[in-house]
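Researcher: Sequence recovery benchmark, item below. Answer with residues only.
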């Protein structure tokens, strides 16, 4: 067994990694991928002879805070390759570092590995989307939306500012938007204004000519989850985070 660390990968390394991911996709597609252009990323590769058995990508999110995506060859699981990468990684990082491992929420092999290695469940991020092409809001809402110069949108209810939100357009499809930073101010919460505001936002975005909304929220955020599902949002993927603190 041989483990190497690289920030820049050779074409052969990339092809071997892609081969492992493609084999995984045939078994079960996972909403995780390697961005080989991300300069924050360091790769740990575990070889048996010249064959790549397991690969781990380490992303530095903040000082001493990291995220990890890993794949192991589907024919060579439960042979200690990923654990060897994890041990190698742990020796590389400073004491006190927080490492979050990402896996698809319902993917049994990854969950079993996290349990076997005593990784601690942290949270689950749910990606949701709404198709606006057939979406209809029939009633008139008492909500107005105004944009400021910093691309922040402010929500008004009966002439009172009650919240704000942001969104940006995806480069691969100008009709798709990613919705984020939705906030109803504390004094206006628990009054039904969150759902009412979201209905107005959906109508506002559709009138801009957009055809799909994507958003992300914590699965544990039950009130927000209920609002979005009630309005017709569907889950597109769910990523769970399991954490480990380096001693």
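Model:
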């Amino acid at each position: 067994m041989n483990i190497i660390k690289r920030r820049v990968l050779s074409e052969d390394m990339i092809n071997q990694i892609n081969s492992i991911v493609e084999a995984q996709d045939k078994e079960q597609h996972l909403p995780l991928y390697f961005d080989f252009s991300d300069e924050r990323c360091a790769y740990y590769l575990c070889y048996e002879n010249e064959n790549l058995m397991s690969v781990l990508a380490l992303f530095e999110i903040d000082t001493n805070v990291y995220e990890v995506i890993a794949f192991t060859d589907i024919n060579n699981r439960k042979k200690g390759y990923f654990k060897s990468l994890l041990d190698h990684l742990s020796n590389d990082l400073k004491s006190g570092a927080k490492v979050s491992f990402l896996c698809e929420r319902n993917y049994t092999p990854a969950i079993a590995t996290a349990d076997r290695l005593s990784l601690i469940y942290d949270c689950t991020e749910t990606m949701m989307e709404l198709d606006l092409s057939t979406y209809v809001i029939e009633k008139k809402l008492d909500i107005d939306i105004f944009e400021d110069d910093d691309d922040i949108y402010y929500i008004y209810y009966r002439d009172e500012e009650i919240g704000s939100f942001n969104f940006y357009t995806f480069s691969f499809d100008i009709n798709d938007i990613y919705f984020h930073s939705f906030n109803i101010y504390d004094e206006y919460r628990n009054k039904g204004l969150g759902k009412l505001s979201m209905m107005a936002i959906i109508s506002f975005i559709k009138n801009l000519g957009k055809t799909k909304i994507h958003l992300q929220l914590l699965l544990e955020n039950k009130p927000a989850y209920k609002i979005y599902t009630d309005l017709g949002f569907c889950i597109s993927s769910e990523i769970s985070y399991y954490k480990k603190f380096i001693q």
